Fold these 2 entries.
Entry 1:
Amino acid sequence: MIKTTYNRRSFLKVSAATGGGMLLGFNWLAGCSTPAQADLAKALPSQWYPINAYLKIGDTGLVTIISPNPEIGQGVKTSMPMIVAEELDVEWKDVVVEQGNLDTGAFTRQVAGGSQSIRQSWDGLRTAGATARQMLLETAAARWGVAASACTVANGIITSPTGEKLGYGELAAEAATATIPEEVALKDPKDYTIIGKGKRNVDIPAIVTGKPLYGIDTQREGMVVAAMMRPPGFGQTLVSFDDSAARAVEGVIDVVRIGDKIAVIASSTWPAFKAKKLIQATWKSPELIHSSAYISAELSKLAQQRTDKPSRNDGDVDEAFAAADKILEREYEGPFLPHNCMEPMNFYADVRDDAVELHGPIQTPEGTRKDVAELLGRPESEISIGLTRMGGGFGRRLFSDFVIEAVEISREIKKPVKLVYTREDDMTAGVYRPAATYRIKAAIKEGQLSAYHISGAIVNLGLAVFPDRFPAGLISNYRVDNHNFESPVTFGYWRAPISNYLATADQMFQDELAKELGKDPIEFRLELLRNAKGKVVGEIEYDLDKSIRVMELVLEKSNWDKTEPGVKKGFSYYYSHNTHVAEVAHVRHDDGEPRVENVTCAIECGIVVNPMGAMQQAQGGVIDGLGHHLYGRLTLDAEGIPEQNNFHQFRLIRMKETPQVEVHFVPSTESPTGLGEPTLPPISGAVANAGMA
Amino acid sequence: MPSYSFLVNGESRTATVDADTPLLWVLRDELQLVGTKFGCGIAQCGACTVHLDGVAVRSCSLPISAVGEQKVTTIEGLSEEGDHPVQVAWKEHDVPQCGYCQAGQIMTASALLAKNPNPTEEEIKSAMNGNICRCGTYLRIFDAVKAAAQSR
């Protein structure tokens, strides 16, 4: 049983008018996503009855499930409602999905980040469905005058002990006002009929026909479009500008200065973009310019130092290094990376005296509303945020800088405005995956690994090395140092932040270590794990058995022990976002340039809610990570200006470079863990360890 | 500003815009056909792909003044019911993740199949190589194009 007090506000009656139901607005279906779209099995209802914040039941039995979290392509708009529908006991074809807007009273953690949507809402979503089911069941039982426990429920129909039947649609009006149960029973995973069965993305019909879904598609009455010019180099400030040529462009309404930026306001997008290029601005550089060369040198210096407060310091590494037969030491450097969401940053803002209306793609609506409230000095209650589907997130839209800009422009010009970034604006705006440098050193004594010291230096993010990840806890002398390097180059979280480079450095190093010790790379890691059972040093975040399981699975599935002419295999393993992943890259070397042909991937992520979507996330993470490993690099010139500003200079992976990706999930009945990010960190190491750096 | 009349999805439409306005922005801002997406503005990513007399072109880099008599087809006009074989295959294979690039991918794929109903695997890869997907849905795109070709 689970207590329904979990976010109880979600289960309070939605409104006093609930008993009368909700009147159906015109065109309501246009705003919804239907798994079966045209062939909805049940007729459209004339009345909807909200049972709780997550779901409404129509008088025909059709169910609307509200998906609370932002959708960035990670699939939660499909998988979150699946969880509610499972416990509600309805058929998926009778479900319509609606994107929830920001509602902190009803929902918790409306964030798309850290691969945590499913993990952190798992109990809440199940409880929402189970509570509604219980209320419907009790309503039916009361009508028949029998005990609820004597009735059965399947596919939205309740059956009495004597065989009478009532559908959810017939009970919804009454159930909406029923007492909320104190606690409800949740299903045993073996009884699932929706969770674990592949369901297609609920927005597909709208996506393949080009319906307006994204923030950039926003059109409102009286809306103008803005483009924003900012200092080209990090740390630069605006001295002066001449906007006469820009103002001469037909369609341009105004040009306004906002701090060190210049906003061009126009009747539509193209004149705004065109006019922005015509502005002649003079910028002033800071005294110390942060070029890539400068940052890289500073990071390397830092990584070689020790901090006064190591993040982890097991045993005595100094003693172990002094006594070592051999010491292996390497340095690894990771570049800045822009997010390059296919939909450039944009947001709609209408700052009025009575209210502030915001609409668009943001991974953190709650935090963003706080930022906007603070900026404007107005209460959050006056600010609304409508959520759109996002053309990619990857962490970029965790940061609300572009929303703030849209708000500043609307406040200045007193008009509803949609701010749209050009690709160049998007790629040069910062909020990058910060550059980082790692120095790893290991001691070998009598053929055994006796000490491990990893030191990382990172731009602005503060943390370069997680102190409790593999192989921490497995080696008695283990030290972690973290260094921060402050820079005007703004940082962001980028798909699997920190892990994305740390895994590469660690996993490449461990392969070298294995070679040094004359061991097979997988066997070397397995041995470390097996030997540590029952004697782990200090706290660790990952699980020994799950780590072993994914390694053994990938070993088997990749035919690791079989040699293939012309092909080198590389192994890598990483734990992040509560999920364990092992990967093997198969790289062909005898046919022109080395090419990744195939990647085998084994994942331990608890229950897989939607295998169809999960497969996408897993494969996409590998492909995305591979592309950035092979081609991704953003550099800053001597003025601190990004040297890559569009896709002719910043290469993304394309179809021809895409390998096959074979994914194996470890069967599990444990609660689901993250999946949007964890397959990305290991791929670089796997590819590098297969001889393709 | 000059006026341009041209055929979009079988209908004659008119827009009063500067001659250098890319077809993309005419479609999106003037005609409210927002299915065609803005990705890079320099014909590198393919998100803005439409058909010009049946041929896949990058609408972000095609000035409206160059359209003339040529027929424009956008994702909204590819089929009436969303049932073009490529769209059907896209749904069947559950291709999209974020979905933003997919209209462009579908327009490139449908133009390929119109010209070459039975493309080889290499021909599919070559045709689709101009369209970027940061989510990395390439494996499913490839499978969907193959399936669409077989279904025709």
Entry 2:
Amino acid sequence: MTDDVLLDIKGLRVEANGIPILRGLNLQFERGKVYAVLGPNASGKSTVAKTVMGLPEYEVKGGDIIYKGESIVNKSITERAKMGIAYAFQSPPAISGVKLEDFICRICPDYACKEPDEELMGETCMCRQELYDDFERLGIENLGDRNLNENFSGGELKRSELFQVLSMRPDIVFLDEPDSGLDYDSLKVVGRELKAMKEKANSTMVIISHHRYVLEFVEVDKVYILENGRLAYTGGMGIIPELEEKGYDMFLAQAAS
Amino acid sequence: MTETEKKRKRAEAAKKKSAAYGEDLDLDQFEFSHEQPRRMDLDEVSEEDRDLVSEVGFDASERLASGSYLQFDNESILADVLIGQEGLEVIPTSEALEKYDWLSDYLWNAVPVDTDKYTAASELEHYDGYFIRAKSGHKIQMPVQTCLVLKKGKSIQNVHNIIIAEEGSEMHIITGCATPSDVERSLHLGVSEFYVKKKARLTFTMVHKWSDKIDVRPRSATVVEDNGVFVSSYAILSPLRSIQTFPKVRLMGRNSRADLYSVVYGTKQSKYDVGGALILEAAASSGKIISRSIATEQSEIIARGDLIGKHSGVKARLECNGLLLSDEAEIGAVPALRATSEGVELSHEATVGKVGADQLNYLMSRGLTEEEATTLIVNGFVQLKAPDLPPSLQRSIDDAIKLTLEKGL
């Protein structure tokens, strides 16, 4: 293991509701790189992300998750988040009575007003103007004063999730299908944000996806293909056209032979 | 027989009549006061009492209120109107009944005197309370504040309030009820009758802070005339022995509207039976009942809501949401809709649940601790945004809720 390895997943076995999903998975993620995790349905892609985040329905039965040199399998979700792990949910739950803008200011101090009692036109200042500028860049300025995830459209959920996890300035971020259900314009916005983030090179990005558009746009460094809860193939972006043409079954069968 | 004698006779007949809901209390266990409360000045109120009343939103400096009414047990009363405030009257009910002959028409008009044994006893025993009136056409900008304090043990605080918003007037009342935590078993009996005249707007914001030996039996009703608006916001955030309240609003005027909001935060072994009814009797009348209940520890909450549509085209909505934060607590939601005319539009939503694990995990993944995440969810759940409430009153409700949650969770 080199010093550059941020997250090292070793022989990981995970069950959900008693059903084995990961069956001895080995994956390494280096600092500042961009990864695509691909694989057929039910291969365990999302499970990797959710298990690293520590969601309790995914039970670690064996193996280890080493992050920044220490095992995190016994750490709470909060501790992991505070250590710099972030996960953009595929279908985040609605939280009534909590406005998106207030929530972001809370999880991301950069956006919160420096002076807590700073008054802005009679109202206590919660968030700085930068937040609204950044909202606009992602095209979610209309969501600021809406309740978190409540009645958001599919595209709005994706953009709001992306915004939140990027605001947290994580060391590693798992993006679970950030591109599903997006129209072309939204795809471009999401791609642009991810690329900007990559260029800053301060976060390791793990993109779980079925589609090549975003992956190509951000120029993924490494591609992992999972099958049946194990790592089946490691390669570069160059394999994507072939993969798309052949499908997982044939691609993996030929790669194995 | 005079009208007063007739009412007394009806009260006599209802002396043993149990209430429709809630534990049936034995009134003989408590003692009514037989004395007339005396008037007092603000500087007679001790520091301790000032702190107590401030917890339910009463500002003892009186700077932010257009009028103030403060009553301790059945003993002393303070009633003031800001110097220079026109069109507002705040005086004890006993005084008002002597002053105005016409007021007897409003006494036991919205609330029938023979509703149950509590209203009957209230009439038959000695009572006082507040009479608050916004005179015709006057818009009273700053809120009127009232507070009823119960300090004596084994007693009944017997209060009868009459609130009138005359034609075209506007008034905001914030009222608190409070008791020190060491009071022995007592009963608060509060009759409140609200009259919202044509084109008048009345908001009534109430924060209750009792202690766990107090029983509370408010009996309230409102009559709203043409184009009138009545908004009631109620927060009960402290433990008590029991409360049963079921305010009724009759929308008797064309295009009248009433919104009833309530937040119940159940603690200890308290029993809350809190509801409300809207009776939509006139064309184009509308309204809503929104209730949020949170049950912690061993508390029991029943949230009721009745919508009764009697005129074609009326519209009303009921939302009854409960959040259970303890395995030993209990919440019941009892929504009821009744239409007696064609073209009535009534709807309801009732939910009772726990804080979702998926919500907790989600918020924790954004760096919040489990406690912070729970507080945020509960806080969001009780958000009570009454659009017609002046910001200062909205803030006092928000602050009271925030304080309770910080202490409680």
